[in-house]
């Protein structure tokens, strides 16, 4: 019992300290984060932390699914897969003798893809002949490949968490390793940026197809979300799934992937975040040494398509052999628009924790749903959506859940949020800031994310101050403007009978 009360007292002390601590963090971060830009345009953000002899290094390429074109959807995600396959010096036993086989594989695979695209006019015997030849060449190529050599090198040198992720707005590569191995990271990653080799392309294309089947086609939630965003966005590429459409993945061209690589994977379209046991001056020398001679490319154009204003409610029914689920979203602006801050406050009031409005009302009191929440998406670089999600509790229906959510929206429109709720939002966000910046990984990811999305990593330093300026009138006005039927898209799963 004494331990229980001791823990409670410690928790209280932590929450008392959070506002002071978060203010201190904000105050000195601007001085502690060191920025450096190479002549080729590569941006580096660094922060010293000497608590342990480790360092976290993130590289963000400012390219995601939003930058793809019709017919090439999924190419950004496919490229992320391919950049783990090595370079002319890594991932290969002998690149000089490997290259002729790679060229022959490309030739046969391109002929096979061209024949498949003929539809009803395909020559089946020609297909079988090309498939047989491709398998033979892939078997001949296999002895040249050193699988996962990047990961093996990192693991042998104490590296952990070697991974990557593709999103709507960007692609990030990450690793955590001993501080004295940072030069190894610079050598590996500069080599990956300078001359990657897209080996095993056609085999990996099949892997991505299988990934899509698992994540989307055989997943009720994945299928629902895909249908939801494709209905919500009629013009903007946010309506396209990150993994791509099946027909596009099947026909992804290695030549087009190389072209996409050259367009977007250049130093002037990249941001590096390094946090940990470092000396910024030494890191700058290291980055200049390994990345400085990589040539820049013409800066890619941003997405110019603007999603037209929605002129009526959209409803999508997904028939699937699974329990009902609901997604309901409203178009909204993104940062740094003032109303985006308002939606941040609304998100916290509605769904942050077990004391939030949606959870208390719909899950605990009415017991209509097993879970309910809100989030903004699918991306952040361009205007996005404020989304409600939930799972009805049997025997309640998605219609009942929709009605219950609408009632909570109506309260935001007509009943002023209390000062206590607004203060709770500020406390939660300050606590979240402290937690998010505590780890090297959290700090590195935040630095490169806001540098890419907001154009300046310092955006998150002023976020809490902006939140403190939000009033109950702002919330009512924003809710009445955006959370209306005309601006609503709703998708739900109807169980297959």
Please tag this protein with its features.
497 residues; Cytochrome Bc1 Complex, Chain A, domain 1; five-stranded mixed sheet; 11 strands; 16% strand; disordered N terminus
Q: CATH homologous superfamily of the domain at 314-495 - what is it?
A: Metalloenzyme, LuxS/M16 peptidase-like
**SS-derived structural category:** alpha+beta
- N-to-C CA distance: 53 Å
Query: How much of the residues is beta strand, in percent?
Result: 15-25%
For the record, the CATH architecture of the domain at 314-495 stands as 2-Layer Sandwich
Give me the CATH fold name of the domain at 314-495: Cytochrome Bc1 Complex, Chain A, domain 1
Q: What is the topology, as strand order, of the major beta sheet?
A: 1-2-6-3-5-4
| Relative helix content | 40-55%
């Amino acid at each position: 019992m004494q331990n229980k009360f001791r823990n409670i007292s410690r928790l209280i002390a932590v929450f008392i300290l959070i506002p002071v601590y978060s203010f201190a963090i904000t105050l000195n971060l601007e001085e502690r984060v060191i920025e450096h830009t190479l002549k080729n345009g590569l941006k580096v953000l660094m922060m010293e932390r000497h608590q342990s002899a480790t360092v976290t290094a993130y590289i963000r390429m400012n390219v995601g699914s939003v930058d793809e074109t019709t017919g090439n959807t999924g190419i950004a995600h496919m490229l992320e897969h391919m950049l783990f396959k090595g370079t002319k010096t890594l991932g290969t036993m002998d690149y000089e003798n490997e290259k002729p086989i790679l060229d022959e594989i490309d030739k046969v695979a391109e002929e096979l893809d061209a024949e498949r695209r003929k539809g009803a006019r395909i020559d089946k015997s020609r297909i079988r002949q090309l498939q047989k030849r491709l398998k033979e060449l892939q078997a001949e190529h296999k002895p040249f490949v050193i699988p996962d050599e990047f990961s093996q090198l990192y693991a042998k040198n104490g590296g952990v968490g070697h991974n990557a992720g593709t999103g709507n707005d960007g692609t990030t590569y990450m690793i955590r390793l001993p501080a004295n191995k940072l030069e190894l990271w610079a050598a590996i990653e500069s080599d990956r940026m300078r001359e990657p080799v897209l080996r095993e392309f056609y085999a990996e294309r099949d892997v991505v197809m299988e990934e899509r089947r698992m994540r989307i086609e055989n997943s009720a939630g994945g299928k629902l979300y895909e249908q939801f965003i494709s209905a919500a966005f009629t013009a903007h590429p946010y309506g396209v799934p990150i993994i791509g459409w099946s027909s596009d993945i099947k026909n992804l061209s290695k030549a087009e992937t190389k072209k996409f690589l050259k367009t977007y994977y250049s130093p002037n379209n990249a941001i590096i975040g390094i946090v940990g046991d470092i000396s910024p001056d030494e890191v700058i020398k290291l980055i200049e040494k390994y990345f400085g001679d990589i040539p820049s490319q013409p800066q890619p154009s941003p997405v110019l398509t603007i999603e037209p204003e929605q002129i009526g409610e959209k409803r999508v029914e997904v028939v699937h052999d699974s329990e009902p689920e609901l997604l309901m979203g409203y178009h909204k602006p993104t940062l740094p628009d003032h109303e985006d801050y308002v939606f941040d406050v609304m998100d916290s009031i509605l769904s942050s924790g077990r004391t939030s409005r949606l959870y208390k009302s719909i899950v605990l009191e009415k017991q209509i749903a097993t879970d309910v929440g809100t989030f903004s998406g699918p991306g952040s670089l361009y205007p996005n959506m404020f989304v409600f999600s939930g799972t009805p509790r049997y025997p309640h229906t998605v219609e009942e859940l929709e009605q219950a959510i609408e009632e909570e929206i109506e309260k935001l429109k007509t009943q002023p949020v209390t000062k206590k709720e607004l203060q709770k939002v500020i406390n939660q966000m300050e606590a979240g800031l402290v937690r998010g910046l505590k780890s090297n990984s959290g700090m590195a990811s935040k630095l490169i994310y806001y540098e890419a999305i907001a154009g300046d990593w310092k955006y998150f330093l002023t976020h809490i101050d902006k939140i403190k300026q939000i009033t109950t009138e702002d919330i009512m006005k924003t809710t009445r403007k955006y959370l209306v039927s005309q601006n609503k898209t709703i998708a739900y799963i109807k169980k297959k009978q």
